């Protein structure tokens, strides 16, 4: 009987140690889960305020109601100070107010092409939603502008349509 009591106490000790390990793992996963929830709530709560602070590809997606299958590799936004945060493979880039582009297709597309990894699915869906004259006017206004020319090239490449540009492109 004493042997059974010893085995039972040893078994209980092993269960207690195993339980402690499980609790530690659970707590670590809970911390990670809470960080993910905080990150997601950052983009879903106060949606109006957050949409105002989105820039680049995230602004384009929000303002043109584009929901790409593949997530953006970087979410850019305006904040109080410059910061980079990586969570679950998604980078959040925070820029200062002076980096805010004009609230136009031209401004945010330039920012996307200049500061972010170009998201071809986003651009493909965007180009199908916009009036091509916006790009034509942009290239005509900036015939030597590298981002205007890149946007025009990507439009033609991704849509298979040709932009009617009357300006001499240099």
Gyration radius over CA: 25 Å
Largest sheet: 4 strands, mixed
> In terms of quaternary structure, what is this?
single chain
Secondary-structure content class:
alpha+beta
Number of helices: 7
What order do the SSEs take from the amino end to the carboxyl end, as H and E?
A: HHEHEEEHHHH
Helix content: 55-70%
End-to-end separation in angstroms reads 95 Å
Average pLDDT score: 79
Overall description:
The structure is a single chain. By secondary structure, this protein is of the alpha+beta class. Helix content is 60%, strand content 11%. It is built from seven helices and four strands, in the order ααβαβββαααα. Strands 1-2-4-3 form a four-stranded mixed sheet. A hairpin with a 2-residue loop joins β3 and β4. α5 crosses α7. It is globular and about 45 Å long. Residues 3-8, 15-27 and 37-49 have low confidence and may be disordered.
Short description:
The protein has seven helices and four strands.
Question: Could you give the topology of this structure?
Answer:
Layout: H1 2-44, H2 47-53, E1 54-55, H3 57-63, E2 74-78, E3 83-87, E4 90-95, H4 105-115, H5 120-129, H6 132-141, H7 146-159
Parallel strand pairs: 2-4
Antiparallel strand pairs: 1-2, 3-4
Task: Record keyword descriptors for this entry.
single chain; alpha+beta; 4 strands; 170 residues; globular; 4-stranded mixed sheet; disordered N terminus
């Amino acid at each position: 009987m004493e042997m059974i009591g010893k085995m039972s106490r040893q078994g209980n000790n092993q269960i207690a140690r195993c339980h402690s390990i499980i609790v530690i793992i659970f707590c670590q996963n809970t911390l990670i889960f809470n960080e993910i929830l905080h990150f997601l709530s950052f983009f879903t709560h106060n949606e109006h305020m957050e949409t105002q602070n989105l820039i680049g590809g995230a602004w384009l997606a929000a303002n043109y109601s584009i929901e790409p299958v593949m997530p953006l590799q970087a979410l850019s936004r305006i904040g109080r100070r410059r910061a980079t945060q990586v969570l679950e493979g998604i980078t959040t880039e925070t820029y200062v107010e002076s980096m805010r582009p004009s609230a136009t297709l031209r401004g945010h597309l330039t920012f996307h092409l200049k500061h972010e990894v170009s998201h071809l699915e986003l651009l493909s869906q965007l180009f199908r939603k916009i009036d091509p004259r916006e790009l034509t006017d942009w290239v005509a206004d900036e015939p030597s502008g590298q981002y205007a020319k890149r946007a025009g090239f990507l439009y033609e490449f991704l849509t298979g349509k040709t932009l009617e540009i009357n300006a001499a492109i240099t």
